[in-house]
Amino acid sequence: MTKALLALMLATAFAGIGIRLGSAPTFLGRNQNAIPIASPTPTPAAFSHPLVFPPVNTNGNISIGIDEACVQILDGPCTNMWTYGGTYPGLTIRRPTGQTTNVTFMNNLGAAAGEMTVHNHGNHSSADNDGQPETLLIPTGGSRTYTYNGLEQGANQRGKMQFYHDHRMDVTGRNVWMGLTGMYVVDDPADPATLPSGAFDLPLAIADRQFDANNQIPYVFNPDGVTGDKILVNGVYQPYLEVGDRKYRLRILNASNARTYFLTLSTGDPFTQIGTESGLLPVPVMRTGMRIGSAERLDVVVDFAGKLGQDVYLMDLLTGMQLLQLRVTQPLVDDSTIPSTLRPLPNIGEPTATRNWSFDRTAGHWTINGLRFDPNRTDARPVLGTTEKWVFTNPTGQAHTVHIHDVSQQCISRNGGACYLYETMKETWYLAPGETIEVKLKFTDHTGMYMLHCHIIEHEDDGMMTQFEVVRPPPAPRPRPTARPRPRPQP
Ligand SMILES: [Cu+2]
Asked: What is the whole-number distance in angstroms between the Cα of residue 453 and the centre of ligand 1?
């Protein structure tokens, strides 16, 4: 029997539809990130708190304070966090594509937190607005405005769910753990209008935390990844949501520092995956289980038709935990449909150069091609306007999530064979031990420095990051002047 099947049987045995459990079943998963479940802290009764959504701002000019706030997560004392605007997750930015957005962040944290930098993950930002880890920082007591023009190669950026988070060199793990994460939805009129929208379009950030006896979340760096035994959805532990008997679009972000999930529905029903972190897929893909590594996104539709009166659980198979209870309480008319074709991939041409990136373990540290991050070293200088093939390998015993800044990438092959149907275009790739993935990417619009790293954030902070600089093409050689006949002396 496979481990996954065993976990599935255990999970479904405790998570039958319509059964509300007094407390969540907890199983020690076999994944490398799992830790024993021991909870000295007051814990809300399972599914006693409603799912909440962070405030949404749709304006072209947005100001966000990087503020300390005490956030009510568990019962008992509130949890001191570092936040974008006072909530966890932070303020959700929701903007139409093709429109310029200016976001000003004010660093109101104490001096001990240090300078901050904000990366709009998945956005096609100019280098200066990409949240550089060691330059263009937001000083304590100061502010910085990031400008996103919403364009890519002369057209609108594709609709998708991005997210923004801290990216400061060496301490990104601490800063994200303390709460510096927010969602960022780009709406695109070129996407099918019949997909579930409005109140039926729900962004969900899943993230784990370890709480102490006072409900605080002290961060203890562990280069193998920092995890916790409480899995939160939009900052709530085991929330419930009342839904209607119709289709819903769930935009799922793994906002955890390190933990991987394997998501299922307690009913065994499939998700219809319509998109990735880089926008809609060419065609929808039905999936009964979905692995999601740190920083990956899954854009899915779930249909609750015929489930009126039932409770459906969003499950994590790796821990056996129920993450979210969906109570199907309202009869609703469903006018949404999922078209059989969604969005074709953009044509980015064929690669003219190949680069190899090995996500390594070297001298006790996480490295790329054997080297730890050094802001004074640049490992690639691709030329603006060209397409390259990048090959990622993982010779280590741990999984990595490979994240490339600047532009999305299209999958060429996985392990020498076909790519999964649901990973046509992405910017964060799950690379299990021993795996190889080939992608192609075209460097458009912006020159300058961009990051390439593992998004298991402690791997990144330990050194599994490098940078590449998109450069202008070399000037074309000047045409040689054609030799002209010498004037002949007149007789
Ligand atoms: Cu890694």
From this structure: 8
Task: Give 450 Cα–ligand 1 centroid separation in angstroms.
Answer: 18
Q: Which residue has the tokens 């490339």?
A: 404
Distance between CA 285 and CA 301 in Å, rounded? 10
User: How far, in Å, CA of 251 to CA of 271, rounded?
Assistant: 12
What are 345-399's pLDDT values in tens digits? 999 999 999 999 999 999 999 999 999 999 999 999 999 999 999 999 999 999 9
Tokens representing 116? 């901050």
DSSP letters, 457-473, are HHHHHHT-EEEEEEBPP
Residue 116 DSSP code: B
Ligand 1 centroid – CA 427 distance (Å): 15
Q: How far is the CA of 164 from the centre of ligand 1 (A)?
A: 20
Indicate the DSSP class of residue 347.
-
CA–centroid distance, residue 256 to ligand 1 (Å)? 13
Span from the CA of 292 to the centroid of ligand 1 (angstroms)? 14
Per DSSP, the three-state class of 8 is: helix
Q: How far apart are CA 85 and CA 92, in angstroms?
A: 10
**171 CA distance to ligand 1 centroid (A)?**
15
Q: Are 440 and 388 in contact (CB under 8 A)?
A: yes
* 0.70 exceeded by pTM: yes
SS3 186: strand
Give the Å distances, CA to CA, from 467 to 125, 296, 369, 381: 15, 20, 12, 9
Centroid of ligand 1 to alpha carbon of 224 (angstroms): 8
How much distance in Å is there from the Cα of 252 to the middle of ligand 1?
21
Residue 435 Cα to ligand 1 middle (Å): 13
Indicate the pairing of strand 201-209 with strand 247-254. parallel
In tens, the pLDDT along 260-315 reads 999 999 999 999 999 999 999 999 999 999 999 999 999 999 999 999 999 999 99
Give me the residue label for tokens 């007051």. Answer: 42
Cross-strand bridge partners of residue 184? 93, 162
The rounded Å distance from CA 359 to ligand 1 centre is 7
First-to-last C-alpha distance (Å) of the chain: 103
